[in-house]
Amino acid sequence: MMVNMTKITKNPKKPPSKSDAKADDAAGEGSEGAPNELSLFKPHPRGADDFDPLDLGNRPEDYEQEDLDLPALDHLGEDDEVNPRTWFHPDGLTREDVDRQDDALSMLQMGKPATVFLSTGPVTYMRLANPLTKDGFKDDAGRDAEKKERLRLTQEIDTPVKLIGPANEHAVDEVTSAVYARAPIFAPVLQAMRESAHLSLWRGANYFHFRPTIIVSGPGMGKTTLVHLLAEATGLPMIYLDGSTMMTTVDLMGGDAVFRSSRPSAIVQGLIQHEVGNPLVVFDEIDKLADMSLGARDKPAEALLPFLEPQTAGRVREHFLQVDLDLQFLNWLLLANDIDKVPKTVRDRCKVIQIPPLTPEDLAAMAEAEVRRRHLEPELVGELIRACARGQIKSLRKLSKALDAAEATLRRPLLH
To answer: Are 293 and 247 in contact (CB under 8 A)?
Structure first.
């Protein structure tokens, strides 16, 4: 059975008015007028002259999706060749769902995500590349092992991937609040991320997407912990890059077959592994990135520029596969200790948020909250507070080690 796949919904959601935002603020307050946890993350009212210039990077048409409607299941009767109500699928799909999904994926085009409405709910798919064949690259380039690897990846990159994550404003709020409860010092980051994700939803997305963000703080303040909490809360996979150990930019762009270091990029490998087109891409220690390869650029972090610019992220060249990839839905989080060592061209394309150093009072409050969350002995709170006041604990990293040691002692079995 063929499906009508011509219905296109443009910009189904619109930004709220100022009156809507005020009503939301009022709804976020408790019965006695005190703000509750969610009210800490209400978006600022936006008028015609009140916007962040970075919000203009992604255009509304970037989020347009083709809605592929399904007919109702009830029209199928007893005489049909296959009764979808008796069809078994590990994901709970009916036979009709599988047919509609296959039809939709066969018509999917690069740069045009499509939402398929199944009996289990809507699912959004995208193509990372244009349909490829084994002749899509030069067979005579590289060694035999490399040719086999390129052929394998070429075939796998041809499979459509999903766009996932919190798909409405309430779900984004829940995620933001859950992460804030564990990492309150990163409230500015979470607020900016929440507003950007809401804006993507208002423009038509039904998945989690926010603009590239640079988080700057001193070492040991929990930036890496934050990104793991975000991945857990959003359900998005994470592609992790460590600038302190990278000696080339191959993990970003892939290595061309003419070079000895030829290999696929970590990004394309992560996209294939997770089958998700909007993972969290965490670039840790971006300020320590070096490039020791022949002919390397003076500022290797500028290799990120095609990924961060919406107009170019839709077609980024992967040098190992020699294909253009649609990477416009990646969620970039760049972590740095020294913002001055990040090229200005990179900073200009990101939301930059600096986290101030922690005070002993900040550390003491977090110690108390973690003791309660881990169900440790209450007496431990006083000891940790005194250690913070004396300067023995100056970072979240040291606080976490102290808490881990206390938890390990509590869990240690008693010998009789």
So the answer is: yes
pLDDT digits (tens, 9 = 90+) for 148-197: 877 888 888 888 999 999 999 999 999 999 999 888 899 999 999 999 99
Structure tokens at 120: 């289990």
DSSP string covering 31-91:
TTS-B-TGGGGPPPP--TT---GGGGSS-GGGG-EEEEPPPPGGG--TTSSS-GGG---TT
Instruction: Find, among 192, 167, 175, the residue nearest to 54 by Cα.
Output: 192
The CA distance from 39 to 29, in Å, is 6
Domain boundaries, the chain: 211-354, 360-411
Q: Which structure tokens are listed for 293?
A: 């390869």
Q: Which residue has the higher pLDDT, 313 or 133?
A: 313
Which DSSP string do the residues of 187-255 spell out, in sequence order? HHHHHHHHHHHHHHHHTT--S-----EEEE--TTSSHHHHHHHHHHHHT--EEEEETTT-SSSHHHH--
Topology adopted by domain 211-354: Rossmann fold (3.40.50)
* pTM of the model as a whole: 0.75
Q: At what angle do helices 379-389 and 396-411 cross, to 10 degrees?
A: 150
